[in-house]
Design brief:
This protein is mainly α and 713 residues long. It has 30 helices and 8 strands.
Length: 713
C-alpha cells in the first residue's frame, strides 16, 4: 500500500529533491550507526535501501522517514559489548540480523494483538532516561575513536578506564578533526538547524585525505568498501541460543522502543498535517522493513525524526520521497563506495556523536527539574541504570520504574479538602481558592481515584489527620471514585463505626450508583441502610441539619447580601494558575500597558476602548472580579510610565478617566449579578409594569424588553 499523500507535478519534484537530500544525509549517519551496531560501515548503506523502499510502499504516513538510526543500533551494539562480542566479527555479522529478524516478528505479534495502544502507557521520563542512558553509553564507547584510539565496551566505569588507557594512542590531528567535527555540526544545529552540515563534513573529510593525505599523519581511514548491492541471507536464529533469554528481552525492548518513538513521531506529523494514521498498518510496515533489513544482514530499522524533518523542510508530501532516497542509495553503493576509503574515522565518529547527542534528552531533564522532581528522579534512575548496569539491566529497571509510577499515581491520587465561596454555588478546594471557607464543623474531602487496598489508608490518614475537636460531620465527595474493592469497603465500614463512636456523622456522596452495588456485593450494605451513603453533599448536609446558605467557619456571613466581597479578586486566575495567579495578572497588566504605549497621539488615547484591549490578552477576556483587579494594576503601571517619562501627566489623566468609566461599568455588572439585587429589580419592575401599562403602551413594551434582557443576564 503506497501512501500517496498529496501528489501533484510540483509535489513530485519536491519529493524527489527531498529524497536526494535524505539519501545524502543518511550516508555518514547510517555508516556510523552500522559501526555502533557492530557491523561494517557499508551495512548502514544496505539498511538504507530495501527497508526504506518497503516502508515507503506499505506505510500509511505520506511523509515520515525511517532508516538506520541511533537507538536500535546503540542497543544492539551495547548488548554485543556486554557479551564480549567484537564489532565486525563473524559472530556479530551473524547475531545482528538474527536480532533484527526477532524484532520483525515482535512487530507482527504487535499487529495481531493491536498493540499500538500500548504506546500511551509508556512513561515519558522512563523512555527519555533509558534512551539518554544508551546514547551516553555509546558516546563514551566512541570517545577514543575521536582521538585516534579504539572503541571501548562495557559500562561507564570500564569505559572511563578504557579512555584513559587509550590516551597513549591519541593523535593530535585526529583530535582536531574529531572534536572540530562535533563543534562545527553542533554550532550549525544551533544557528542553522536546517543546514545538512554532516554531509558537508563528510565531503570535507574525503577532500582532506585526497588532497592533503592526512592519513600520513596517523589519521585512521575507513576500510575499503566493495561496490555492489547487498547479498540476501537467511538469518541464523540458532546463534541466539547461548543467551536466548537476554536476546529475547533485547529484541522485545527494541521493538517497543521503535514502536513508541516511531508511532508517536509519525502521529505528530499526522496531527500537524491533518491526516489519519493507521497504527496497525504502521506496525505491519515496521515488521516488513525489519524483515527486509534482516535478510540484508543489517540492524533494526527505526523512524528518524531528523531525516523526517529534513524531508519536511524541502516540501515532501508523499512516500515518493522515501522511494527516491532508496534508489539514490543504490546509486551511491554502485558508484561512490570507492571514495569512502578517503573518509577519516575521527570525522565519521564526530558526525555520529553529534547525532547521538541529539538523543540525550537534556531538555526533558531540565523541564522535569523545573516542574516535577519526582519525575526527574525516575528519569535519572533510568539514565544511570543503563549507564552503570548495562542495557539489559537498564531495560528491567525501566519496566520496574514504569510499574512503580503506575502504582504511585494510583496509591497517591489527587485529593483535597473543600469549602464554600460565600454566595457562590459549588464546593472549592480550600488550598487552591483563598476565598473558599470551610463549612462550620464540617470536613468535606474529595478523593480523585479508584479506591482499593493500596490507597484506602491514604484516605483514612488524610481524614483522621484533619479531624478537629469541633468536627461534627465528615463528607466524602466520591465523584472521582469509579471503583472500589473489598478492602476499601471494609475500611469504609470501619471508619463509619469509628467516627460514629466519636459522635461524628460520616457520609459518602456524589458517586455513581454502581458503587452502591459494589458495597452490597462486598458485605458493606449497612453503610447504605444506616444512611451513610447520600446522593449529594447537599443531602448529607441537610441530614446534619444544615440548610443553605450554610454556616461557615469563623462565623463568616454566607448570605446573598455577602455575594460580592471586597477581597474576592483573582477568582478565575487563582483557579487556573494557582500560586502563579498574581504573577500572571501582572503579566496581563504589562500586556495592556504595552498596547497603550504603542499609541502615540493624545487624540487617539481618548478613544481607547479598554474592553477591546482586554480581549487581545493572551488569556482572552477575563471575569468581572479579575477585571476589577486588573484595572487597579493597570493604573499603577501607568503611573510608572509617567515617572519614566513615557507618558505625560495629561495623558495619564485622560487614561485614568477612561479606566474609571470602565471600572464603574464593571461594578454595575457585578451588582446586577447579586441575587438580592435581581429580586428587588423584579419587584420594582412589577410595580412599574402595572402603572405604565395603564399610561403609555409604548413605554410598557420598552420596560418589558428591558426585563427580558435582565433575565438573560
Amino acid at each position: 500500500m503506497l501512501s500517496k499523500g498529496t501528489i501533484t507535478s510540483k509535489n513530485i519534484k519536491n519529493d524527489i529533491f527531498a529524497g536526494l537530500i535524505v539519501a545524502l544525509v543518511s550516508i555518514p549517519i547510517s555508516m556510523g550507526y552500522a559501526q555502533i551496531a557492530g557491523l561494517p560501515s557499508v551495512y548502514g548503506l544496505y539498511g538504507s535501501i530495501l527497508p526504506i523502499l518497503i516502508y515507503g510502499l506499505f506505510s500509511s504516513s505520506p511523509q515520515f522517514v525511517v532508516g538506520v538510526d541511533a537507538m536500535p543500533a546503540a542497543m544492539v551494539g551495547a548488548s554485543l559489548a556486554e557479551f564480549g562480542i567484537a564489532g565486525n566479527s563473524p559472530e556479530a555479522l551473524s547475531l545482528v540480523p538474527a536480532i533484527t529478524l526477532m524484532v520483525g516478528v515482535w512487530f507482527l505479534i504487535f499487529r495481531l494483538i493491536n498493540a499500538g495502544r500500548v504506546v500511551k502507557y509508556i512513561s515519558t521520563p522512563v523512555m527519555g532516561g533509558f534512551i539518554s542512558g544508551v546514547g551516553a553509553t555509546i558516546i563514551f564507547m566512541q570517545i577514543p575513536k575521536l582521538f585516534g584510539g579504539n572503541a571501548g565496551t562495557g559500562e561507564i566505569i570500564v569505559l572511563i578506564s578504557h579512555i584513559i588507557e587509550e590516551s597513549v594512542n591519541y593523535n593530535w590531528v585526529s583530535m582536531v578533526l574529531g572534536l572540530g567535527t562535533v563543534v562545527i555540526i553542533q554550532s550549525f544545529k544551533r544557528f542553522f538547524p536546517k543546514f545538512p552540515m554532516s554531509v558537508i563534513m563528510l565531503l570535507v573529510g574525503i577532500f582532506l585525505t585526497a588532497v592533503f593525505h592526512i592519513d600520513c599523519f596517523g589519521v585512521k581511514l575507513l576500510p575499503a568498501v566493495d561496490a555492489g548491492l547487498p547479498e540476501f541471507i537467511i538469518p541464523d536464529v540458532f546463534t541466539l541460543l547461548p543467551h536466548f533469554e537476554s536476546y529475547f528481552v533485547l529484541s522485545l525492548t527494541i521493538a517497543l522502543v521503535i514502536m513508541a518513538q516511531t508511532l508517536l513521531a509519525a502521529n505528530s506529523y499526522a496531527s500537524k498535517y491533518d491526516y489519519k494514521l493507521n497504527n496497525n498498518q504502521e506496525l505491519l510496515a515496521y515488521s516488513l522493513m525489519n524483515f527486509s533489513s534482516a535478510v540484508t544482514g543489517c540492524c533494526p530499522i527505526n523512524g528518524s525524526v531528523s531525516r523526517s524533518g529534513i524531508a519536511e523542510q524541502f516540501g515532501s508530501k508523499s512516500q515518493i520521497m522515501s522511494i527516491t532516497a532508496a534508489i539514490s542509495m543504490v546509486l551511491v553503493i554502485l558508484f561512490c563506495t570507492p571514495y569512502f576509503i578517503y573518509l577519516p574515522v575521527p570525522i565519521l565518529t564526530g558526525i555520529v556523536m553529534s547525532a547521538l547527542l541529539g538523543i540525550i534528552d537534556f531538555k526533558q531533564a531540565k523541564r522535569l527539574w523545573k516542574c516535577n522532581h519526582q519525575e526527574l528522579l525516575v528519569f535519572l534512575v533510568a539514565f544511570l541504570g543503563v549507564l552503570f548496569l548495562g542495557t539489559i539491566n537498564g531495560v528491567m529497571i525501566g519496566v520496574v520504574l514504569s510499574f512503580v509510577q503506575v502504582v504511585r499515581k494510583a496509591v497517591i491520587p489527587p485529593r483535597s479538602f473543600l469549602g464554600k465561596i460565600p454566595g457562590q454555588h459549588g464546593y472549592y478546594n480550600l488550598k487552591r481558592n483563598k476565598n473558599s471557607i470551610a463549612i462550620k464543623d464540617t470536613l468535606i474531602y474529595r478523593f480523585g481515584g479508584n479506591l482499593f487496598f493500596a490507597n484506602i489508608n491514604t484516605l483514612q490518614n488524610d481524614i483522621e489527620n484533619a479531624v478537629m475537636p469541633s468536627t461534627k460531620q465528615i463528607i466524602i465527595d466520591a465523584s472521582g471514585i469509579g471503583d472500589i474493592d473489598i478492602t476499601a469497603a471494609d475500611k469504609l465500614v470501619y471508619l463509619a463505626d469509628k467516627f460514629s463512636k466519636m459522635g461524628i456523622r460520616f457520609y459518602i456522596t456524589e458517586h455513581q450508583g454502581h458503587i452502591n452495588d459494589q458495597l452490597r456485593q462486598f458485605g458493606a450494605e449497612r453503610l447504605i441502610e444506616e444512611g451513610h451513603v447520600r446522593r449529594t453533599m447537599s443531602l448529607a448536609l441537610r441530614d446534619c441539619g444544615y440548610v443553605k446558605p450554610y454556616p461557615l467557619e469563623g462565623d463568616v456571613p454566607n448570605t446573598p447580601d455577602n455575594f460580592i466581597e471586597a477581597d474576592e479578586k483573582l477568582a478565575e486566575m487563582e483557579w487556573a494558575f494557582g500560586e502563579e495567579a498574581e504573577e500572571r495578572m501582572q503579566q496581563f497588566a504589562n500586556e495592556m500597558v504595552a498596547s497603550i504605549s504603542s499609541i502615540k497621539e493624545s487624540e487617539q488615547l481618548t478613544n481607547i476602548n479598554i474592553e477591546k484591549i482586554e480581549e487581545k490578552l493572551a488569556w482572552g477576556k477575563i471575569g468581572l472580579f479579575d477585571e476589577s483587579e486588573l484595572l487597579d494594576r493597570l493604573e499603577i503601571r501607568l503611573e510608572q510610565l509617567v515617572e519614566n517619562g513615557k507618558l505625560t501627566r495629561t495623558q495619564l489623566d485622560e487614561l485614568e478617566n477612561i479606566i474609571e468609566k470602565r471600572k464603574k461599568t464593571v461594578e454595575e455588572k457585578i451588582n446586577l449579578l447579586n441575587p438580592k439585587a435581581i429580586e428587588l429589580f423584579h419587584k420594582r419592575m412589577e410595580v412599574l409594569e402595572s402603572h405604565l401599562s395603564k399610561i403609555n403602551p409604548k413605554e410598557f413594551e420598552h420596560i418589558k424588553t428591558l426585563k427580558d434582557i435582565i433575565k438573560k443576564l
